């Protein structure tokens, strides 16, 4: 539903300029911070306790914020790339190609976290790559489909954007997992820190 909504909003023909992708990314981060703050409040049930917790864990730990600036910046880049990709690819091609993030996440997990993958897992990743490759092959069809109307250059831009988003998604996800494993903070606090760092970009 998210992909279809984003795709529709980026390709809608209307008078006047389109909204900026960066505005949508910042709005999503602000909404995420708000929702995580509500969840922390529901766990503490007291505004004073919540304020003290946020002050202690976020404002008084600038080193933690700097650590999270890396994945926050990458997630900001990734979200902007996804809007570029959806502006230049049809929803089906985008959705299938974006599944390559599973492959990039697996590769970064092996290299950064030292995880071991079994032979069936590697085989599954190869099938995933083969499926994504097959979707990219041109298909001759009569009729005026959305894919035929798009220019080859815009499809190339969309494909490069979604591939870069896959790599950034895999790296940022594994980096964030590595940070989470070495901390006692809740996921909600970490998401607020990520949102704060993202809004800095």
From TrEMBL:
<comment type="similarity">
    <text>Belongs to the nucleotide-sugar transporter family. SLC35A subfamily.</text>
</comment>
<keyword id="KW-1133">Transmembrane helix</keyword>
<protein>
    <submittedName>
        <fullName>UDP-N-acetylglucosamine transporter-like</fullName>
    </submittedName>
</protein>
<dbReference type="GO" id="GO:0000139">
    <property type="term" value="C:Golgi membrane"/>
</dbReference>
<keyword id="KW-0472">Membrane</keyword>
<keyword id="KW-0813">Transport</keyword>
<keyword id="KW-0762">Sugar transport</keyword>
<dbReference type="InterPro" id="IPR037185">
    <property type="entry name" value="EmrE-like"/>
</dbReference>
<dbReference type="Pfam" id="PF04142">
    <property type="entry name" value="Nuc_sug_transp"/>
</dbReference>
<dbReference type="InterPro" id="IPR007271">
    <property type="entry name" value="Nuc_sug_transpt"/>
</dbReference>
<dbReference type="GO" id="GO:0015165">
    <property type="term" value="F:pyrimidine nucleotide-sugar transmembrane transporter activity"/>
</dbReference>
<keyword id="KW-0812">Transmembrane</keyword>
